[in-house]
Amino acid sequence: MEKLEKLYEGKAKQLFATDDPEVLWVEYKNSATAGDGEKKEDFEGKGRLNNLITTLIFGLLAKRGIPSHLVKRVNDTAQLVKKMDMFPLEIVLRNTAAGHFSSRLGVEEGIDFDEPVLEYFLKNDDLHDPFVNDDDLVVLHVCTREDLAEIAPLAKRINEALIDIFTKIDVKLVDFKIEMGRTSDGTLLLADEITPDSCRLWDQRDKSGKVEHLDKDLFRRDLGDIIPAYEEIERRLAALADAEGVTLD
């Protein structure tokens, strides 16, 4: 597969065309950002780790009956994905109070919910990705009621599968952000990435009761180096993938 012209560059990834019109080339970057991009730093090896982690998680999800846009990993920092018509939407699932939810609603971090909370945020940098509801999305023509009737159940299935995956590697899935889109034939698929950049992951192997972050909150909150945490997540996921017969390629 030949990588052609660059189509898009975001905070953490670059997107390129290929010689197959239905396949795109994704290149993961070493940069980390926080606070709407106001805080930014490069970490050597971060792109490689996020590429590996996403590949492993998408493979483990496929094993659980949840397909994604991933075609295959092509090298340490790149993967091939299906070309998608993406919804300009961040889909957030929360299992435990933390981050924006806690600050917005005055809920103490660490409180587990009786059931998962599904939230939507409009992808718009100028508006700082505002929180929106179903009606907002419909009147703004971001998606239809029919789209939402597919998106919400799929998001909850992904949450259940991810809880199973992370529980098996002694990690608590606090919350996560995903994106979805449709293929050329209209199939709704999980897309983008699932990494410690887009999840809150708390280590459950430390029995001291102190929260041990294995995610980007280490960078957001100046708690420490993200690379050892990302390496630990990759190592545990790789062991689980090996046990379940999931390969990287």
Commentary on this structure:
The protein has 249 residues and is α+β, with helices and mostly antiparallel strands. Helix content is 31%, strand content 33%. The strands form three sheets. Strands 8, 9, 10, 11, 12, 13 and 14 form a seven-stranded antiparallel sheet that branches. A five-stranded antiparallel sheet has the order 1-2-3-7-6. Helix 1 (46-63) packs parallel to helix 6. The radius of gyration is 17 Å and the shape is globular. The relative contact order is 0.16. The mean pLDDT is 95.
Summarize, please.
InterPro entries: SAICAR_synt/ADE2_N (IPR028923), SAICAR_synt_PurC (IPR033934), SAICAR_synth (IPR001636), SAICAR_synthetase (IPR050089). The chain has two domains: about 5-80, Phosphorylase Kinase, domain 1, CATH 3.30.200; about 85-225, D-amino Acid Aminotransferase, Chain A, domain 1 (2-Layer Sandwich).
